[in-house]
Amino acid sequence: MKEKVIGFIHSKKIILIGFVLMAIIFAVPSIQYLLENGTILNFNEYFKFCLDDSNQVEQTIIYLMLLTGLTICYFLIVKHRENLFKNNKQMYMYIAIISLIFVVVVPFLSSDVFYYLGVGRLDSAYGQNPYYVTIKDFVESEDNSQYLEQDTVLAKGYENDWGSTTVVYGPVWTLVCKIVAGISFGNIDIGLLVFKLLNMAIHLVNCYLIYQLTGKKLFVLLYGLNPYMFIEGIANVHNDIYVVTCILASLYFLLKKKNIIVSIVFLALATAIKYFAILLLPFIIIYYFRDKKPWERLKNCFLYGMLFVFIVAITYLLYIQDIQVLSGIMTQQGKFTKNFYIILMEYFDIPDLVSNVNMIFLISFIIIYFFTCLTLLYKKQITFREEIRKAEYFLVVFLFLLITNFQPWYIMWLFPLIMWQKKKMLQFVVQIALISQFANSVFLINGEGWRNGTPFTFFMLLGIFVCLNLMSHRQTNSMRQKNVA
């Protein structure tokens, strides 16, 4: 019997080896590109997986095959986690190895990191306020183009599609960009490497926080080994992974340390990166004061809400001159990409249809959110699991119905709360994250452009429909088996 158990474990370890090999193969095109060019400077940023002039369809097929392999290995590892990892140290080491492999993968599906570095360099090296001066404004004024030759970080930011836009994120993120860009010394390769290693470290911190909150390998692996996280968080270097860290830290200090002040501080820092995190504020405050009477809950909501606003305001003092500090954020929210709004724009020639639909959703969202928080003030028994599930629903609606500028990496916002969700919601978040990466293949074929948001949205909706049907089918079969038994 013992021999059978040992044989079973060894056979399952092939899955771990398989995942590593798939990750290495995934990184091969990037390694080849870097070896041939010696720098990322001339990388054209136009969504090429193999980074050469070979057929785009062939490249996309290779990408989909490798992504499928990674996804299969991912689910198998999660399923057999208890047999594959004897202790947490092994689990963390394995996640770190895969993360390090993805550090090598160039940002083939997004060029945002070059914008991050560009505005950071504008701030750190040239003393410009990136909320009021764009990279292109600086370079093209007073013949500052001379800096492009010696500062490849600035040059790469200048070439970026967002180079003519002021900062579209909160000041905490701008400060991170400033520090990383300063460390780069104007070298784009150093800057990109530092950012990738930093994102890798943040990813591992998130894994640690998830385990501290749950004590379960399941949730660590669902997040930590997810191909979606490796691609969007480490390969494409998106800043949403930092928001995940701040939210997890906020929940950790709320639930484990019972420290509402530090919890609020971290939530404010998350909001000072991307504003959506403010939606969690009432749930955190009211839960902490759940044993108080409604009036005292309301008073504490006001007091700690003011603390939250004060912390966010302090971060803006680093850059604010006037209200124009928010202009970049408004510019970003005015864009339309990769969601059903694109379909409305492309196929329904009705003036103001998109803005009216969005406004209806927004008003409905505000009303429902307000009354949910009001009800929570007067609720007698408050459990964290129940209320955080409501918060997750609001984040889902906000993400898919209110944001016109939807991007696949925004799905990362849903991961900090998955540990307390029902099985269906947990599966939904994990699956749509992976579906978004498969749907992104349309950009590998056609390049970037708002009209490509229509096929992306089609594949996303199709994938979600299939997943929901499969979940419903499994639930029906499970109920039938129980009835038979």
Could you explain how this protein is built, in words?
By secondary structure, this protein is an all-alpha fold. Helix content is 71%, strand content 0%. Helix 4 (88-103) packs antiparallel against helix 10 (188-214), helix 4 (88-103) crosses helix 12 and helix 9 (171-184) crosses helix 10 (188-214). It is globular and about 65 Å long. The protein starts with a helix and ends with a helix.
Search tags:
485 residues; mainly alpha; 23 helices; 0% strand
Present the secondary structure layout.
Blueprint (H helix, E strand, L loop, with lengths): L1 H36 L18 H24 L1 H4 L3 H16 L8 H13 L10 H6 L6 H4 L1 H8 L11 H14 L3 H27 L2 H8 L2 H9 L4 H16 L4 H12 L9 H8 L5 H23 L10 H7 L6 H8 L5 H26 L5 H19 L20 H17 L1 H6 L6 H32 L1
Rg computed from alpha carbons, rounded to a whole number of angstroms: 23 Å
Derived from helix and strand composition plus strand pairing, the structural class reads mainly alpha
Which H/E pattern describes the elements?
A: HHHHHHHHHHHHHHHHHHHHHHH
Distance between the termini: 29 Å
Helix content: over 70%
> Beta-sheet strand percentage?
under 5%
Largest sheet: none
Question: What is the molecular shape?
Answer: globular
Question: What is the number of E strands?
Answer: 0
- Poorly predicted regions: none
| Average of per-residue pLDDT values | 89
Tally of contiguous helical segments: 23
Short description:
With 485 residues, this protein is an all-alpha fold. The protein is built from 23 helices and no strands. It is globular and about 65 Å long.
